[in-house]
Design goal:
Polyketide_trans_af380; Xaa-Pro-like_dom; Rossmann fold; 8-stranded mixed beta sheet; globular; hydrolase; 36% helix; Alpha/beta fold hydrolase; two-stranded antiparallel sheet; alpha/beta
């Protein structure tokens, strides 16, 4: 049976809460280990924990954790989607795994799902301790794709300006402006539309998830370009994606300029099928676990 160990570690002076999933027979055994990063706005009880548990069943220790400002972790502002802060937290997660007695020395990797893939890519590009990289349904965008996704240059500029105004307000008053993370009614939501995974309590609408997005996060998110980090990634990489999932052109661009040993696996399914639908998750887990077993 997989063992879940409640853990805590620090990043930027704040305490992060995590769940370390250990394979059966963990007593005294050191395993290869992977830090798991889920989609934007999410907490460890969503897809990150699901994938971490699945990796542990396949013999790989895996850490799902709440980034600063999310879930049970400390840090402020709350619910701020900050690529810079999240990448730093991933590096702190690698610090934690690298010194844990259940982790085999030098055998640490990363798994990124959706937006977490971009954060994992950038951290792997700058941290040689990341020996292997797995990306599932990765959201990888650049400036051109951002404009295509968010309605053109003017719409992107408006979101960016709203974020900058929210940053100024926070600096002056300490007040954080929020919009829903997901909504079918509020067009200002970070994700506007019938995104069932986040709206269904039997799927991703878990009690630990706050469903809110700090408006001040827009400039950092819109300006984030993980594709630009691809040439710096040396860790062997496997990518599991679908032509019908989010931003497949970003995956193609990333894969084309990635110099590391690489494998791109196309599967069927929509973006959020990879978050919790059993057939999609299990197939993705089989692929990334095989990759980690051979590269860690």
């Amino acid at each position: 049976m997989v063992h879940r160990e409640r853990v805590a570690f620090t990043s930027g002076g704040d305490t992060l809460a995590g769940d370390l999933y250990l394979p059966p027979g963990a007593d005294g055994t050191a395993f290869p280990a992977v830090a798991v990063a889920g989609s934007w706005t999410t907490v460890k009880e969503q897809m990150a924990g699901l994938y971490a548990a699945g990796l542990a069943r396949r013999g790989i220790a895996a850490l799902a954790f709440d980034f600063r400002g999310f879930g049970e972790s400390g840090g402020a502002p709350r619910d701020l989607e900050s690529p810079v802060r999240k990448i730093a937290d991933l590096r702190s997660a690698i610090d934690f795994l690298a010194t844990h007695p259940a982790v085999a020395p030098g055998r640490v990797g990363e798994l990124g799902i959706c937006a977490g893939a971009g954060y994992a890519v950038v951290n792997a590009a700058g941290d040689g301790r990341v020996r292997s990289l797995g990306l599932v349904a990765p959201w990888l965008h650049d400036a051109q794709l951002v404009e295509a996704i968010y309605g053109g240059a003017q719409a992107v500029a408006e979101r960016r300006e709203a974020g900058l105004a929210a940053q100024r307000r926070y600096a002056e008053t300490g007040i954080v402006e929020y919009v829903p993370g997901v909504s079918t009614e509020n067009a200002a939501a970070a994700m506007y539309g019938p995104f069932d995974y986040y709206l269904d309590a039997d799927r991703g609408a878990v009690p630990q998830w706050g469903n809110r997005f700090a408006v001040m996060g827009w400039p950092g998110w819109l300006g984030f370009d993980p594709i630009a980090a691809a040439p710096l990634v040396t860790a062997p990489t496997v990518i599991v994606h679908s032509p019908d999932a989010a931003v497949p052109d970003g995956v193609r661009r990333f894969h084309e300029v990635l110099p590391a040993r690489k494998e791109l696996i196309w599967q069927a399914g929509g973006q959020m099928d990879f978050y919790d639908q059993e057939s999609h998750v299990e197939a993705a887990l089989d692929a990334v676990a095989e990759h980690f077993a051979s590269t860690l």
